[in-house]
Amino acid sequence: MSTVLIILAVLGIVVLLVGYFSFLALIYHRYFKRKGYVNPFIMMLFPLAILSALFLGLIGLVRTRHLDDSAYVAMFLLGPLFLVTFAIYFIARLLPPRPRNAKPRTIRFPYAFLGWSLIAVGAVQILVFGFMSGWRAETLSRSYKFLQITLGLGFGCLYIAKRAKAPSADDLLAADPRPPVLYLRAFNLEEQYFVLLPPKEAAQYTSYLGSKAAVTLEQYLAPSIRQGIGPLVALGNPEDYAPPEGAARTYERDDHWKERFLDLARRSAGIIIQVGESQNLRWEFEVLKHEGLQEKCFLLTPPGKKLNLWNRGVLSFTRKILNWTLWIKGSRPTCWANFAAGIREAGYDVVQAEPPPGSILSFDPRGSQILLASDAQEPGDFVAAMTQRLQTKAA
After folding, report:
1. Residue closest to 225 by CA, chosen among 391, 393, 381, 392
2. HSE on the CB side for 2, CA within 13 Å?
3. 320-352: per-residue pLDDT in tens?
């Protein structure tokens, strides 16, 4: 077989594997998670079912004694894989929706213990195999790959453990007498990144210990808002397993969230709104204008970071991966033109052209867009412009 055919075959296998695992992720996010089955251990059912099917297929193939026949190999390995994948999809479609959880998130599973245990196992195995092999490069290379897996899983567990202990919005409001800042967004875009940064810089805005470049709006601004204005709070997404990092959450029943939203909006010092589209977000825009609260609302555009050529290339590739991940989860980034058209229907006068990078916008008493500042580079720049606006309105 020629080198070109080998390369094409490898690329084809990679594409098939990526497509298959993307399909499994789509099933989880669009059927399991949206129906309220948010425990991450549900995802473990997927590899367990697939590995069991492949194991049974392999046993059947061995019993046929046709290991060298490609037709038998395909039938006994791909056949069970297809059947178990179809079964997972069929079960996911038939699962009844679970009641929406309006209580503060409580997680009893010992994620912290599991996280530290995984990290310890990874570190111990590399020492053991290093000593046993005389620190041979080949052995260390395999051990290092296993260490990377345990570190990734361990850091993920530690992150969940830390988020599980995050104070609720009620706890934060009781501890801090200042008026809060309310954070509004479409739930389906909650994980949408606000800015992409080199990992070392991104680490300033998240407590996740693994490699991370995407920083959400609330992660980016929460520390500066808490320092300069007041506690950052938000209504929680019922699909949350643990509260996300950034704003403190309050989880409300479906028949009560609108009253809670009005209470927080009226008592807030300011309201930050992430660009997005949803029926609930449009309703919130309408209510804010009806209540005369639009003058303390703020829309922000991502900063135009000055990056070197390498970081621009890496972050451009990361952006494509993140957008593809959002699509799998049933979301897609909202362009400014669609967002502007949506809130114009809610009674606001917003220009269709996207504002320049690092812009801070608000509204006048009639709901017309006001550009407060542009070319903000750091969280403090955004918060300074919002603070000045709030102080001017209060004077």
Report:
1. 381
2. 3
3. 887 788 777 777 778 888 898 889 988 899 988
Distance CA 194, CA 214 (A): 7
Please give the span between the terminal C-alpha atoms of the chain, in angstroms, as a whole number. Answer: 79
User: What contacts 131, CB < 8 A, 6 or more positions away?
Assistant: none
Q: Are 90 and 27 in contact (CB under 8 A)?
A: no
Tell me the pTM. 0.86
Q: How many residues does the chain have?
A: 395
Q: Which residues contact 224 (CB under 8 A, 6 or more apart)?
A: 379, 380, 382, 383
Count CB neighbours of 55 within 10 A. Answer: 11
Per-residue pLDDT tens over the stretch 118-136: 999 999 988 888 888 777 8
CB 192 within 8 A of CB 319: no
Cβ-proximal residues to 236 (8 Å cutoff; 6+ apart), any chain: 105, 243, 249, 250, 251, 252
Structure tokens at 340: 């502007």
CA–CA dist 136, 160 (Å, integer):
36
